[in-house]
Inverse folding.
């Protein structure tokens, strides 16, 4: 059986981007692969969460994983920091990771730019892409080496496939680079080069409903699995739209295309077709489209939502899931770490 691995940072409730980009796929493939799914609590530290919230955030992701249908009888579910072997491999991989390539990572560049815009109180567009002035901002080494830790997560279980959303494509590519580099440097096939897992349609980007860009926590435009019907409806009804098409078959502006992208994920194909026709003959009423979209989102998320609280409050069950998961993950991780150490020349006295 081939191995699948993926994780989600514990930064609060899961939104539709996390669900359609990652979690739904985790569930779909759990019968067919040897799956490791974890909660990336170490990665969440790059944004300095308050210690009072730290554990609750881990628990939230765990409860939402289980509520969405991950079955601990079939897959290994664990907390990243419960497997110290990952941190050790991270140290080893840092030695073969280069500052220049890490600085060129898109997510890193975006975050640095955002920090500069905030510190200077200017718009993002006002910070030049090649701006090298770091005054007034503190970018942690952890943020720079985020992709190295992610590579350690993946390589330590010799994962063949990694189900992630489009935004993680470059990080995944870096895990491939490090696997290759390590194997070449030390002359042994210690690591497997992981590939993205998708269902033939490419990696997806779930858009936000505020006009442009992706749905995300830091974008502040999330529709969450934990949202109730009223909240979801309110968020969808507030989605940005234009004044409507004036000519038949006109191209869609991004804000309208985003509504359709979301609709394609949650609604029946015939529903999407119906509204596309209405767009094309200029008779579309955005209010109707949004109402339908909200109802179809609820159909997907409310059955999951219903289960979250009971699972979240079940101490004994959660303890059992993560402790069994930790043991299985450590067994697999320590076997790979031993191979890496041996290849590098470490020897036990
Ligand atoms: P995180 O927590 O940012 O996102 C978790 C997953 O959700 C996907 N995602 C999206 N997909 C489509 N559209 C969106 N708008 C959207 N927003 C988020 C992400 O692509 C991701 O799959 N670095 C990872 C966590 C991680 C990891 C790993 C993943 C740490 N180690 C090892 C895989 C393997 C991350 O940023 O997750």
């Amino acid at each position: 059986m081939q191995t699948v691995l993926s994780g989600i940072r514990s930064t609060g409730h899961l939104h539709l981007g996390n669900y359609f980009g990652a979690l739904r796929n985790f569930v779909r493939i759990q019968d067919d692969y040897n799956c490791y799914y974890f909660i990336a609590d170490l990665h969440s530290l790059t944004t300095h969460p308050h210690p009072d919230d730290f554990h609750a955030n881990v628990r939230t992701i765990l409860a939402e994983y289980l509520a969405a249908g991950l079955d601990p009888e079939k897959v290994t579910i664990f907390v990243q920091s419960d497997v110290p072997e990952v941190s050790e491999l991270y140290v080893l991989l840092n030695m073969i990771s280069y500052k220049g390539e890490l600085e060129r990572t898109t997510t890193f560049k975006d975050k640095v730019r955002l920090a500069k815009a905030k510190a200077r109180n200017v718009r993002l567009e006002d910070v030049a892409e090649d701006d090298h002035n770091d005054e007034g901002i503190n970018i942690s080494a952890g943020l720079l080496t985020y992709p190295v830790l992610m590579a350690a997560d993946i390589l330590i279980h010799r994962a063949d496939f990694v189900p992630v959303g489009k935004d993680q494509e470059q990080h995944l590519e870096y895990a491939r680079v490090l696997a290759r580099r390590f194997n070449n440097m030390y002359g042994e096939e210690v690591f497997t080069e992981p590939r993205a897992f998708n269902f033939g349609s490419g990696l997806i980007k779930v858009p936000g409903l505020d006009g442009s860009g992706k749905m995300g926590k830091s974008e502040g435009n999330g529709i969450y699995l934990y949202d109730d019907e009223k909240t979801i409806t309110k968020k969808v009804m507030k989605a940005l739209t234009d004044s409507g098409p004036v000519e038949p078959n006109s191209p869609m502006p991004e804000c309208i295309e985003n509504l359709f992208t979301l609709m394609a994920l949650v609604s029946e194909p015939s529903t999407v077709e119906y509204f596309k026709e209405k767009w094309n003959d200029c008779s579309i009423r955005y209010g109707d489209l949004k109402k339908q979209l909200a109802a179809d989102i609820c159909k997907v998320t409310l059955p999951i939502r219903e289960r979250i609280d009971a699972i979240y409050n079940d101490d004994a069950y959660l303890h059992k899931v993560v402790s069994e998961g930790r043991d299985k993950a450590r067994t697999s991780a320590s076997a790979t770490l031993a191979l890496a150490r041996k290849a590098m020349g470490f020897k036990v006295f």
In short: The CA atoms of residues 116 and 135 lie 9 Å apart.
